[in-house]
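Section 5: illustrative case.
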């Protein structure tokens, strides 16, 4: 299955995340992209690694299917780098905060590192 790709920038990623649009989010990634997630369950010495657009699509489909709100607070772009912070909340009040750094190649996300924390 061919997936149409889109160039990513701060406003585009903010719109897709806040709309919980997994299909649009997935379109920002290069075919061989890597997403690394660092959190309580995935420490820096053993981060969760999600490789390739197909696996990243599954990752975003899961996140976007959850009953929660997403707000991108800050985006910073410089050359082939894009960073943003994101605040999320579940209906029960549980909060999640994430900071992400993206490395871009030809307008697509080649590598992304996410550091996240949540209420226990």
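Designed sequence:
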């Amino acid at each position: 299955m061919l997936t149409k790709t889109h160039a990513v920038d701060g406003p585009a990623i903010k719109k897709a995340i806040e709309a919980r649009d997994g299909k649009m989010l997935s379109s920002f990634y290069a075919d061989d992209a890597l997403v690394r997630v660092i959190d309580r369950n995935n420490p820096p010495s053993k981060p969760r690694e999600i490789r390739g657009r197909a696996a990243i699509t599954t990752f975003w489909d899961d996140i976007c299917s959850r009953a929660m709100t997403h707000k991108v607070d800050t985006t910073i772009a410089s050359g082939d780098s894009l960073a943003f912070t994101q605040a999320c909340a579940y209906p029960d009040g549980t909060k999640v905060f994430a900071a992400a750094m993206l490395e871009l190649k030809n307008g697509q996300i080649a590598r992304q590192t996410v550091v996240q924390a949540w209420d226990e």
